[in-house]
Amino acid sequence: MTADDRDVRDGMAADGRDVGAAVATRWPHVRAALIALAIAFALIDGLPLPPPADTPAWERGFVDDVRAVQRVALWPVAWMHPRLRIAQRWALYQAPSDHVWRVWLEARLPDGRWNVVYRTDGADDDGYGAILEHGRVRGPLDIRDTPPEQYALLADWITARVLADMPHVTAARLRMERVQLDTDGAHPSGQFAFVHVRERGVP
């Protein structure tokens, strides 16, 4: 082993400089550059371009060119999306869908009739609105095409809560009604989906 090799092993460069001190001095600058680079890639990735199928004809010439530049700029980090499942997309000028869902929570009486315990439009004689309208609970009820994974857990819990609160009922049901929105207001369709029924005495 040469003297130079021993110096490198001991943390000293061949010219006598402390390697550890040099790295410690330069690292803040390197870290700042890496953070700036990550921010730049995130800004490019988050550029709010409409999907190709939803791009109006008058925008396509411009948007297609910007999309091509975006694809080239993100090429160095394109491998991260499928492997790390990270992405950043910004949606500007969001508009709600003209189809929404209305919550129905019901209890079945001994004679077989279903009684509304809570409905989104204000039917709430038993105070379940305080639960279902809470900010931490609204997420599972925010349904687009399919309910979130937590919907089934919430439905199971809230129907069990109804049975516990109302010993005289024989079953509890949570379901969602499709509602059409237009300039005249909300129009219930009478079409229901995502029905969850809990029978008393059935696990």
Description:
- By secondary structure, the chain is an alpha+beta fold.
- It folds into 2 domains: 3-84, no CATH class; 99-199, no CATH class.
- The chain is 39% helix and 21% strand.
- It has helices spanning 3-9, 19-45, 57-73, 80-84, 129-132, 138-141, 150-165; strands at 99-108, 114-119, 171-182, 185-199.
- It has a 4-stranded antiparallel sheet with strand order 2-1-3-4.
- Strand 1 and strand 2 form a beta hairpin.
- The radius of gyration is 29 Å and the shape is elongated.
- The relative contact order is 0.10.
- The mean pLDDT is 80.
Write the layout of secondary structure elements.
Blueprint: H1 3-9, H2 19-45, H3 57-73, H4 80-84, E1 99-108, E2 114-119, H5 129-132, H6 138-141, H7 150-165, E3 171-182, E4 185-199
Antiparallel strand pairs: 1-2, 1-3, 3-4
List keywords for this structure.
single chain; alpha+beta; 2 domains; four-stranded antiparallel sheet; 4 strands; elongated
